UniProtKB/TrEMBL annotation:
<dbReference type="InterPro" id="IPR003593">
    <property type="entry name" value="AAA+_ATPase"/>
</dbReference>
<dbReference type="InterPro" id="IPR015854">
    <property type="entry name" value="ABC_transpr_LolD-like"/>
</dbReference>
<dbReference type="Pfam" id="PF00005">
    <property type="entry name" value="ABC_tran"/>
</dbReference>
<dbReference type="GO" id="GO:0098796">
    <property type="term" value="C:membrane protein complex"/>
</dbReference>
<dbReference type="GO" id="GO:0005524">
    <property type="term" value="F:ATP binding"/>
</dbReference>
<keyword id="KW-0813">Transport</keyword>
<dbReference type="GO" id="GO:0005886">
    <property type="term" value="C:plasma membrane"/>
</dbReference>
<dbReference type="InterPro" id="IPR027417">
    <property type="entry name" value="P-loop_NTPase"/>
</dbReference>
<feature type="domain" description="ABC transporter">
    <location>
        <begin position="4"/>
        <end position="222"/>
    </location>
</feature>
<keyword id="KW-0449">Lipoprotein</keyword>
<dbReference type="InterPro" id="IPR003439">
    <property type="entry name" value="ABC_transporter-like_ATP-bd"/>
</dbReference>
<protein>
    <submittedName>
        <fullName>Lipoprotein-releasing system ATP-binding protein</fullName>
    </submittedName>
</protein>
<dbReference type="GO" id="GO:0022857">
    <property type="term" value="F:transmembrane transporter activity"/>
</dbReference>
<dbReference type="InterPro" id="IPR017911">
    <property type="entry name" value="MacB-like_ATP-bd"/>
</dbReference>
<keyword id="KW-0547">Nucleotide-binding</keyword>
<keyword id="KW-0067">ATP-binding</keyword>
<comment type="similarity">
    <text>Belongs to the ABC transporter superfamily. Macrolide exporter (TC 3.A.1.122) family.</text>
</comment>
Length: 223
């Protein structure tokens, strides 16, 4: 089953002058697949990811996620859709440094309020354990190493059990050992839990080992 179906996307930026950044992009992503978006700097990778994340609504074409058309939806509807279905991991983790690791992971779930705070805390601890950072739960986020902080950011992305985890260079700031831990975790989430992983990466090795590579050349899908 295709979880994401993109048809004939064109994307323009108007500043400083009108420029077409994505041209006639169509693609399918199956549920549970681990997909990498690759291409040279400026080829449109982040722009495409941002569109698929539903945060940028100015585009021509169609994006269907989990059977829902994103084109033309109101911002509030999209924000709700994201909170329920999409988890994000960026190159820089954007944790709240003054808050504990546990609190950082719990926050998106407290916002959604689908479970009680006690249940959310238990779930957050389970995910931190899965990522091997449960021993750091009560520490301030700023006291962890870069690799540990990135794992906490992934735990935060997982707390609402998203259908899709999206990453913009999620291993870009990590040494090879920590990058391998993150890669293995994504692999495990897709193969064992059926979560769909979509990441922009410059790392050829990372891309080669994913299920599918979407390669952009000057805003078009190559091949
Ligand atoms: N908000 C914006 N306004 C105007 N132009 C933009 C904007 N964001 C991106 N661009 C332009 O769109 C093109 C594609 O940018 P994008 O960031 O998607 O590329 P990328 O492949 O992710 O690059 P990198 O690997 O360097 O991050 C570039 O020419 C960039 O300058």
């Amino acid at each position: 089953m295709n979880l994401i179906e993109v048809r004939n996307i064109n994307k323009y930026f108007d500043q400083p002058t009108r420029m077409q950044v994505l041209t006639d992009v169509s693609l399918d992503i199956e549920k549970g697949h681990f997909v990498s978006i690759t291409g040279k700097s400026g080829s449109g990778k982040s722009t495409l990811l941002y569109l698929l994340s539903t945060m940028d609504t100015a585009f021509e074409g169609s994006i269907r996620i989990n059977g829902e058309e994103m084109q033309g939806k109101r911002n509030r509807w999209l924000a709700d859709f994201r909170n329920h279905h999409i988890g994000f991991v960026f190159q820089f983790h954007y944790l709240l440094p003054e808050f504990s690791v546990l609190r950082n992971v719990m926050l998106p779930a407290l916002k959604l309020a689908r479970y009680s705070p006690a249940e959310i805390e238990q779930r957050a601890m389970d995910i931190l354990k899965l990522l091997g950072v449960d021993g750091q739960a009560t520490k301030r986020a700023s006291l962890l190493s870069g690799g540990q902080q990135q794992r906490v950011a992934i735990a935060r992305a997982l707390i609402n059990e998203p259908l899709i985890i999206m990453g913009d260079e999620p291993t870009g700031n990590l040494d090879s050992q920590n990058a391998a831990i993150v890669f293995d975790l994504f692999r495990q989430l897709s193969s064992e839990r059926g979560q769909t992983i979509l990441t922009v990466t410059h790392d050829d090795d990372f891309a080669r080992r994913s299920d599918k590579v979407i390669h952009l050349v000057d805003g078009r899908i190559a091949g």
